[in-house]
Amino acid sequence: MRYFLDPFGCVKNQVDAETMMAFLNRAGWEPVPDAQDADLIIINSCGFIESAKQESIDAVLAYRKRYPDKRILLAGCLAQRYPAELAESLTEADAFFGNADLSRISEAAGAALEGSRRALIPEPEPATLEPAALEPERAAIAGGRPLLSLPGSACVKIAEGCNNRCSFCAIPHIRGPLRSRSIQDVLEECRRLLNRGIRELCFIGQDLGAYGRDFPPELELSLAKLLRAVSALEGNFWARLLYIHPDSFPRSILELCREDPRLLPYFDLPFQHGSTETLRAMNRRGDAAAYLALIEDIRSALPGAVIRSTFLTGFPGETEADFQALLDFQAQARLDWLGVFTYSREEGTPAYTMKRRVPRKLAAERKGILEERQIPITEERLDRFIGRELDVLVEERFHGAEGLYLGRLFCQAPEIDGAAVIRSESSLSLGEFARCKVFARAGFDLEVKPL
What we know:
Elements: E1 2-6, H1 11-26, E2 30-31, E3 40-45, H2 50-66, E4 71-76, H3 77-81, H4 83-89, E5 95-97, H5 105-113, E6 119-120, H6 136-144, E7 153-157, E8 159-160, H7 171-175, E9 179-180, H8 183-195, E10 200-204, H9 223-231, E11 238-241, H10 252-259, E12 263-268, H11 276-281, H12 288-301, E13 306-313, H13 320-333, E14 337-342, H14 360-383, E15 389-397, E16 404-408, E17 420-423, E18 433-442, E19 445-450
Parallel strand pairs: 1-2, 1-3, 3-4, 4-5, 5-6, 7-10, 10-11, 11-12, 12-13, 13-14, 17-19
Antiparallel strand pairs: 8-9, 15-16, 15-18, 16-17, 18-19
């Protein structure tokens, strides 16, 4: 049987999609690049915020309209969060599959082919409490999965779930509590990926700083311990850390990054706000002073460090004074990259019942102000790379434009940041590093030439 899988959404979804493909392929299913040629269309949905939920449903409706006779399986976060509701109301899908145990994707695919309208939502797998007990089958699936990323880069999920319980966030309801993988398990996947020619390992999880805290204390499992083990791996590669909750940032990793330049000084820290009152309502321990101190510590230890963050506007009770505090924090933090989102009211979260809701129009206006003020900050932060010689991961060739390529420097994470525009008189290998000199900035992109 043939299937087409739409990965949909963020890199976390992408890893789930790749893993499902690995299990399907192992079970004898054949992937096809076009939905027209498939017996089954799988949509890997997102259910984090309202806009993503609607996009996921719209994707099902669009595929059903275009392919009325094909079977459709809605998988992922949205199915995990609303299985009964979707099974009853979304008749355009033939079956539903959650994200807690991706090894059962073949079972769900079979149910979809039968048109059973079944919602298969397994319970999350328990944490592996003995890190010496590597599961070879799981590592083989993880390291040998199809890769949907651009050449040379792959994501490594080191933990699933979250224990932070931010009052606005539905992730604990969707992904469950924190469940860390063993260091041996992660290393085995890294080795397999490096042996496949991968040059960038992007470590992901809901909160990398919490890695290992679900293990018994006597095992002393931590992000620093994992990174020290990764640093012992041979080869020319990047290790990129994505998504560290600022309240749990382990400063011990800064020394490791200084010792091994392959551990990139790039940190994605979702500060969310600069008002103490708003942060407390969000169930966050930090405040602007603590977050600015963290930024200072990072930049003092690693002068070339790059910091990305996200801000959330329109949270219930956010006043003009709170918003001004956020603007002040933005001005002082001078973040390299920033994404701004408006509050999404999510069922099952503590914030859902909070009073003093901020009008959507006002939240959107505040979002626009933050984004506008961030432009010159990001441009100034990018200008510091002009004139420097740095490695660039070459990812794409411009078709129809001789000598033009796209890639990324260490300061640019996949999908969310700007790109490196490479002008080369000689041919470059996709998925490999090229030593380049940055000679200009064009908006949020950097223009480079190979040395």
